[in-house]
Amino acid sequence: MAAGDSVLVIESVARTAPHLADAVHSSNFGAIRQIAQFAESDLLKEILREILAGKALPSIAMSEPGAGSAVNDLVTRARKDRGGYRIKGEKTFNTNGSVATHYVVWTRFGEGERELGAVVVPATAEGFVRGAPRRFISGEVFCSLYFDDVLVNSDHVLMRDDGLRKMMSVFNIERLGNAARSVGLGRLALDLATDYMLERVTGGKRLSDWQGLRWKLADMRIRLEAAQLMVYRAATELRNGLPDPGLVASAKCFANETGFFAADTTLQIFGGYGYTTEGPLEYIWKRTRGWMIAGGSVEIMRNRVSVGAVARVQPSGSHLLAH
Predict the structure, then answer these.
(1) In DSSP terms, which residues pair with 242 in a beta bridge?
(2) Which of 184, 250, 277, 288 could cross-link to 259 by cystine, CB 3.0-4.6 Å?
(3) Which residue spans within the chain are E strands per DSSP?
């Protein structure tokens, strides 16, 4: 599915069936995109067909205990051996990590800055061990992953040189999925808040009769419409068939914060009823908060946007010093 189509689908699903969007995300964004883009034909036949048939589930194994958003700090290593590579290291914060069948493992092939790449490791590989299942606040499961000289064939290498630059172009599609779900859940929160305010009576008036509360609805709608347009633009204004990193960073940052703003505002409107574990608000609030971290934090997105802004104003960077 094209990036633009995927964004439309996952936004719509998130707005109507939030939990179902998890399945849509796994089958259209993240690890599956990386495998589809960079795997050789034999690996595609072996893995991708199984994933699309619902018989396999991939996960990205990127973050490490000492390296999250700073991908350049990864210490997992791949060394050449017996027609393949031995993988040694530890990973964490992997979506569906405790149940995945295959992992796109980011690893170093050497000490150089550009010698960073990725390999596909099946869960059945000798020397691979999963840690105890753990859960994010949202309820999504992950676990530590341990690679003790795990041997993978050469055809399981997605890339071994300049992998960060190459893979990040595809990873931007993952960020669009994250951003679109933020918009979808934010719109669901707005729908819930609007319905509640029309029905809830206090002091002889509906909540919707109070101007201050109506303004909360207005603020949510304004931000959500802006976020939606930013996501759509990033998904459709492509460069060489891939999203522009600067547009994606802007869209993800604003959509993430807007989705959480809508969820948090709606929870406040619901009062005590919103602060319970019953109904969809708990999930919406936790999910939108997590996406401000996952896939590149909003701080990392701001760094990316600022780099592009400085480059357009003054490529030499001297203009930055003047301000």
Answers:
(1) 239
(2) 288
(3) 58-61, 77-81, 84-91, 102-108, 116-122, 128-130, 134-135, 141-142, 145-153, 157-159, 201-202, 205-206, 238-239, 242-243
pLDDT for the residue numbered 319: 45
Residue whose C-alpha is closest to residue 261's, from 218, 306, 305: 218
pLDDT of amino acid 315: 53
CATH domain 165-310 topology: Butyryl-CoA Dehydrogenase, subunit A; domain 3 (1.20.140)
Q: Strand 102-108 relative to strand 58-61: parallel, antiparallel, unpaired?
A: parallel
pTM above 0.85, yes or no: yes
Strand partners, 79: 86
Question: How far is Cα 281 from Cα 190, in angstroms, rounded to an integer?
Answer: 11
Strands 205-206 and 238-239, sheet pairing: unpaired
Determine the pLDDT at residue 312: 66
Task: Give the other-Cβ count within 10 Å of 283's Cβ.
Answer: 17
- Dihedral class, residue 242 (left if φ above 0, else alpha if ψ from -120 to 50, else beta): beta
Quick one: pLDDT at residue 279? Answer: 86
CATH annotation of 57-161: 2.40.110.10
pLDDT at 321 over 50: no
